[in-house]
Amino acid sequence: MLGYKLLTPGPLTTTESVKQEMLVDHCTWDTDYMQITQDIRSGLLELAHCNPEIYTTVLMQGSGTFGVESTIISSVGKEDKILICSNGAYGLRMCQIAESASVPYMHYREAFDTIIDAKKVAEILENNPDITHVAMVHSETTTGILNDIASVAKVAKENDKVFIVDAMSSFGGVEIDVEALDIDFLVSSANKCIQGVPGFSFIIAKTKEIEKCKGKSCSLSLDLYDQWLHMNPSGKWRFTSPTHVVLAFAKAMEELQKEGGISKREMRYRKNNALLIAGMKALGFQSYVKSAYQSPIITTFYYPENKKIAFMNFYTYIKENGYAIYPGKLTEAETFRVGNIGEIYPEDMEKLCNMIGQYMDTEYLYNV
Ligand SMILES: *Cc1c(COP(=O)(O)O)cnc(C)c1O
Which end of the chain has fewer CB atoms at under 10 Å, N or C? Predict the structure, then answer.
C-alpha cells in the first residue's frame, strides 16, 4: 500500500470507513440498493437547500465531465444557444463538449486570474437575444479561483435564461443555496467535496427543466432525461451502476452530516487553505489567484523567484514524505497546485509547509 495523502482536488483522501464500504458486493436491483440511491438523491437536495417539489437529482455513471456533458447535450436543443463563460480549463471543456456534439454556443472568455463578470454577461445577453442558456464553473480547479455565481445567476434569471453551474469542486465544501440562486442545473461528482470515490457525477436540477430535456440528447448513455425517467420513481439506475462507489458515497454523506454539514466542512477547508497560503508565503511561494477570489479548495503557487525547482523532483520529495501534490495548469507561468479538501486537517498543512521548508534548506540535494 502506498502511504500518502492526496492534496489533489479529487480523487482525494477519503476516510478508512468510506473505503471499508467498498468491501461489500451489492446487487443492483433489490429494494435496499434502490433505497440507498433514493436516499442519496434526497440527501443531495437537502445539501443544496432545494425543495423536492421543485428540484430533483440524477446520478450519472462516469466522472464529472460525463455529468457536464450530459447536462449540456440534454438541455440545449438545436434551436437553442448556450453562452459558456470560461476562465479556466473546465470552462473551456464545456466549449469542447458543445463543439463535439454540435450544440450551438457562444463563448465569453475571461483571463484565468479574473472572475466571470456579471456585467459582461448582461451585455452579451442584451446583444444576443438568441441565447437561451448560460453556463459557468463555480470553483475553477485549474487555478483555484472562485467565481461569483450569485451575480451571474441574477443576470441570467433577469433575462429568463436557463442557468447551468459546474460546481464540481465546490459543492459540499462551499455552501450553495441552489434554490435561492434559482439555478436550473448544478453538476458535481462523487469524488470531490462530499469525499467519496470516483465513479459517478450528479445533477441537481429543476424537475420542469429535466422534463424539457426529453428527446434532445444526441447520446444514449448520457441522456439526462432518460436517466432521470428510470431513476426517479424507484432508484433504479438505467445501466449498471457503480455499486461500490454508491455505497462509499452514502457513507461519505453520512460523515458529512456528522461533521456538522457543509458549513462546518467549509470552515475546515477554509482553515486548511489559510494555513497553507500563510505557510507557503513565509517560505517565499506566492499564490497565483488574488486573495479576494481564492477558493478554499485548491491553490496555485508560483515557485520562489530566486530558486529553481523542478516539479518532478519536488513532487517526489513530497511524496516520499507522505503527500501528493498536483502540477500546475497554466501556460504562461511555472506553477504547481496544492489541494486542501478531503480527509485533510490543519496539521497536514503544517506538516506540508514544514517539509517544504526543509526541502528549501537542502535544496541542493534535490535540484537537477
Ligand atoms: C473535477 C472537475 C470536473 C470534472 O473532471 P473529471 O476529470 O471528469 O472528473 C469538472 N469541472 C471542474 C471544475 C472540476 O474540478
Answer: N
Task: Say if residue 251 is in the same domain as residue 308.
Answer: no
Say yes or no: CB of residue 328 within 6 Å of ligand 1.
no
Whether ligand 1 lies within 6 angstroms of the CB of 63 is answered as: yes
Q: How many structural domains comprise the chain?
A: 2
**Residue whose CA lies nearest to ligand 1 atom number 6:** 64
Pocket test for ligand 1, best of 86, 90, 165, 295 (most atoms within 8 A of CB): 90
Could you please report the per-residue DSSP string of 318-336? HHHTTEE-EE---SSS-EE
CB 77 within 8 Å of CB 99: no
User: pLDDT by residue (tens digit) across 229-242?
Assistant: 999 999 999 999 99
Angle, vertex CA 273, rays to CA 268 and CA 276, nearest 5: 125
> Look-up: residue for cell 420542469?
208
The CATH number given to whatever domain includes residue 193 is 3.40.640.10
Report the chain's mean pLDDT, rounded to a whole number.
96
Q: Which domain holds residue 318?
A: 5-9+261-366
The answer to whether the CB of 74 is under 6 A from ligand 1 is no
In this predicted structure, what is the pLDDT of residue 133?
Answer: 98
291 and 322 in a single domain? The answer is yes
Domain identity same for 320 and 215: no
Give the confidence band of 106 by pLDDT, cuts at 50, 70, 90: very high
Closest CA to 141 of 70, 254, 63: 63
Do 58 and 203 belong together in one domain?
Answer: yes
